[in-house]
Inverse folding.
């Protein structure tokens, strides 16, 4: 055997750590845990404002969101009512704030369950393959082949009105997207050598799935979840419009739009303002998703 | 010894090496062996073909290979891309379950995947330092996960052992707190070696460990491997397509072509008196600079010169 001609070193110098000036932003890998970027900051700020508006509704407005005052119906903005009143004399601004509570909660929960179920199934299907993968993907194809809104409406109709039915219907239809996304990502990730290396180290399968694959495949599912919240709110809006949504008199943006549509030419703000609230919420979530993607260094 | 076993697959080569003496002196008993190893991958075939009942195409990555790695020995496995070297090494590492044949760790045949104790015997260094480290775990997390799961050191000493391992491969201890993305290719490969060494293996399988690295870094990683092999008393299966590198570090060489071993023997023997046509072709394909005489030595000299 030829003797090594070169000494073992020299080792290339490590990149010097660049500590954050704010110690509490410093995290593992010498990088700030939050590693904030403008997109993320704007998105999170908007989201915080919307959440605070919902949470602080009783403080921000003296009115009751459901109490009717038929003597003061369809008042124009001003005179104590920031955005006027609706046809039942309820303060529109107050209902807008309280609706944020309902819509954000329903939107988030209607995404949480499909996210968890779809991610779990996609992870298992991608890793194990075989008949489980085959059957699962055919089920996914079947659900995708239906127009999703028709399916959700049919399910809510079958299950009966109420928020619980909305969660169940959206979950039954929504999990397929997550299963597909995560399965595809797992198929790529499990061929990466770090997955092989984890197996070569003798680590058990559940540990490889949870610690090595899941963190690396979750990003795409998370990005989709952010836009899915808006889709869920739109589904609730649509259901509300059809009278299958959140039961009245609880305010939500969808029912506000559908109640205001009769007056769209004279009192345009009755529909425009809740519509704008949906748009701004969608924008905030989209910015958060973009910001997280930028932060993770993947485009 | 498996060398005396009959050939199992088509065109397999039986290795007649009853007692082995190499350039670096005599070596010990068998630590890792494959016998009649066959690994076929079934393609899915086209939908049209399946409808017509045509069997899917079978890729014969490894098609009947016998190899023995002895204690303290470095066995070089060479061959062109796609000849089955990587598949063979992954079978030997217990990552694939072979279609046929036997893999033996310390004379014990594997049944399916290696168990916890068997995993500790044989460890692998991977080819691509950019994909072989989990991008979301720090070096310390990667190493301590293995140490903790296999209970190699008491929990209180995990941190210290991680530092030792990092130090062993020539990186500063503070590397433990950094994510793989803050390292260069060569540094990542050092981390990959540290991960393999965490289990204190007897055998190291290095699958093209330097082919993804800059030429200037290749030599340092190879020397690190040789250094560790000496100090820790490892045996090594070194897979490469680089004849110059293999010649420099191997005691014995096996030449692979189309899934079978076409020639196997002591390094100097194979390089100076190649018997197989394919081996000759491989030796002749080593690039020469400045009309240097012997192909393989010229390659080695070039690499050192570039350092």
């Amino acid at each position: 055997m030829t003797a090594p001609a070169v000494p073992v070193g020299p080792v290339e110098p490590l990149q010097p750590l660049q500590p954050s000036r704010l110690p509490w932003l410093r995290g593992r890998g010498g990088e700030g845990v939050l590693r904030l970027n403008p997109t993320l900051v704007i998105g999170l700020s908007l989201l915080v404002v919307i959440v605070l508006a919902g949470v602080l509704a009783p403080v921000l407005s003296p009115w009751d969101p459901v109490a009717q005052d038929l003597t003061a119906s369809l008042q124009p903005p001003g005179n104590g009512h920031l955005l006027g009143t609706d046809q039942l004399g309820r303060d529109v601004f107050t209902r807008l704030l309280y609706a944020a509570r309902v819509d954000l909660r329903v939107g988030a929960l209607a995404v949480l369950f499909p996210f968890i179920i779809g991610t779990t199934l996609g992870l298992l299907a991608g890793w194990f393959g075989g008949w489980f993968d085959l059957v699962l993907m055919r089920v996914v194809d079947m659900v995708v082949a239906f127009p999703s809104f028709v399916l959700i409406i049919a399910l809510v109709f079958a299950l009966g009105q109420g928020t619980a039915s909305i969660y169940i219907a959206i979950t039954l239809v929504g999990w397929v997207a997550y299963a597909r996304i995560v399965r595809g990502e797992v198929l790529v990730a499990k061929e990466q050598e770090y997955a092989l290396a984890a197996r070569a180290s003798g680590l058990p399968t559940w540990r490889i799935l949870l610690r090595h694959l899941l963190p690396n495949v979750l990003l795409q599912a998370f990005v989709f979840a952010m836009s899915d919240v808006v889709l869920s709110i739109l589904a609730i809006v649509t259901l509300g419009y059809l009278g299958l949504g959140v039961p009245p008199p609880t305010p939500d943006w969808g029912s506000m739009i559908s109640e205001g549509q009769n007056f769209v030419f004279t009192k345009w703000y009755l529909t425009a303002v809740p519509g704008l609230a949906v748009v701004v919420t969608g924008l905030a979530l989209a910015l958060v998703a973009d910001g997280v993607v930028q932060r993770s260094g993947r485009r | 010894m498996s060398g005396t076993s009959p050939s199992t697959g088509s065109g397999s080569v039986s290795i007649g090496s009853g007692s082995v003496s190499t350039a670096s002196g005599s070596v010990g008993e068998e630590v890792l062996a494959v016998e009649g190893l066959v690994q076929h991958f079934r393609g899915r075939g086209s939908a049209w073909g399946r409808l017509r009942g045509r069997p899917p195409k079978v890729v014969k990555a490894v098609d009947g290979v016998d190899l023995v790695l002895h204690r303290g020995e470095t066995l070089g496995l060479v061959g062109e891309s796609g000849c089955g070297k990587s598949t063979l090494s992954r079978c030997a590492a217990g990552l694939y379950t072979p279609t046929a044949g036997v893999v033996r760790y310390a004379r014990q045949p594997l049944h399916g995947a290696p168990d916890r104790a068997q995993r500790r015997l044989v460890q692998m260094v991977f080819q691509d330092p950019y994909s072989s480290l989990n991008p979301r775990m720090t070096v310390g997390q990667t190493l301590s996960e293995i140490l903790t799961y296999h209970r190699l050191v008491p929990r209180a000493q995990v941190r210290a052992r991680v530092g030792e391992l990092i130090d062993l491969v020539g990186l500063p201890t503070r590397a433990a707190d950094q994510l793989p993305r803050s390292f260069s290719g060569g540094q990542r490969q050092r981390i990959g070696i540290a991960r393999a060494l965490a289990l204190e293996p007897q055998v190291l399988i290095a699958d093209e460990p330097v082919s993804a690295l800059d030429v200037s870094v290749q030599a340092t990683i190879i020397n690190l491997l040789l250094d560790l092999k000496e100090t820790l008393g490892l045996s090594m299966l070194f897979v490469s397509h680089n004849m110059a590198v293999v010649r420099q570090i191997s005691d014995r060489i096996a030449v692979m072509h189309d899934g079978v071993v076409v020639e196997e023997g002591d390094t100097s023997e194979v390089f100076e008196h190649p018997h197989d046509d394919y081996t000759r072709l491989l030796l002749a394909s080593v690039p020469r600079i400045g009309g240097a005489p012997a192909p393989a030595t010229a390659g080695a000299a070039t690499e050192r010169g570039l350092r």
